[in-house]
Amino acid sequence: MRILGIIPARHASTRLPGKPLVDIGGKSMVQRVVEQARLCTNLAGVVVATDDPRIAAHVSSFGGKAVSTSPDHPSGTDRCWEALVALGASGYDAVVNIQGDEPFIAPEQIDEVCACIAQPGVSIATLAQVVADDRDLDDPGEVLITVDARMNALYFSRTAIPFLRNPVPGPRHLQFRFLKHVGLYAYTTEALRRIVQLLPSSLERAESLEQLRWIENGIPVRVGLTEHPSFCVDTPADLERARQWAAGRG
């Protein structure tokens, strides 16, 4: 299976403008993501899909490959599709949408989602971690997942699911195997072609979660488990943590 890694990168981040170009220990955020993705053994290539010529020029400067895309895309999924079409969709069986704000993403985690999308009958795949702290259950910034017996997602939510009807004293995460979402997606080329044509759904609008649109339209999402930590840089405070991490103080 030929799988292309695509890193969507917008310049106009609300909470951290110019996020892909911020310096983290002598390298830009986007360069760190590209270098980590290139270490993945299952990707046939890695490209950055961007709406900004400054990002495209910077990616070229360190030997990366960039594809220019429209500034009007509502999501990274749509940006991935435009980039894939520009490169020739028929040349790839699947795409991994790699978040451009995870400068320390583990290549092994990308391999894990590649393994999921390569399973027979899987058209969309993502990852989850077992919750190990009750604080994740009460944080609307964390997305929780329930799955069926085949590890297909039943629902994604910003609230703790399932609801513990009769909890006992003590940590809730020890009373059920809660799963929190890791924002890494893989799609077959045909699935990606289909989902970018779908209109926003009611569940999606309610939770502000794009993946609910796919489930609401009957497209299964396979969930793989990962033990690799995720660290997204969304705010100036996150950026400071990332710089400390890069300096060996994290």
Structure description:
- The structure is a single chain.
- The chain is an alpha/beta fold and 250 residues long.
- 29% of the residues lie in helices and 22% in strands.
- The protein contains eight helices and eleven strands.
- Strands 1, 4, 5, 6, 7, 8, 9, 10 and 11 form a nine-stranded mixed β-sheet that branches. It has a two-stranded antiparallel sheet with strand order 2-3.
- Strand 8 (144-147) and strand 9 form a beta hairpin.
- The longest helix has 12 residues, at 76-87.
Shape: globular
CATH homologous superfamily designation of the largest domain: Spore Coat Polysaccharide Biosynthesis Protein SpsA, Chain A
Which class of the largest domain in CATH terms? Alpha Beta
Mean pLDDT across all residues, rounded? 94
Q: What is the CATH topology of the largest domain?
A: Spore Coat Polysaccharide Biosynthesis Protein SpsA, Chain A
Secondary structure elements and their pairing?
Elements: E1 3-9, E2 23-24, E3 27-28, H1 29-38, E4 45-50, H2 53-61, E5 66-68, H3 76-87, E6 94-97, H4 107-117, E7 124-130, E8 144-147, E9 153-157, E10 179-188, H5 189-195, H6 202-207, H7 211-216, E11 222-225, H8 236-246
Parallel strand pairs: 1-4, 1-6, 4-5, 7-11
Antiparallel strand pairs: 2-3, 6-10, 7-10, 8-9, 8-10
Protein traits:
250 residues, 29% helix, alpha/beta, Spore Coat Polysaccharide Biosynthesis Protein SpsA, Chain A, globular, 2 domains, two-stranded antiparallel sheet, 8 helices
Outline of this structure?
The chain is an alpha/beta fold and 250 residues long. It has helices at 29-38, 53-61, 76-87, 107-117, 189-195, 202-207, 211-216, 236-246; strands at residues 3-9, 23-24, 27-28, 45-50, 66-68, 94-97, 124-130, 144-147, 153-157, 179-188, 222-225. Helices cover 29% and strands 22% of the residues.
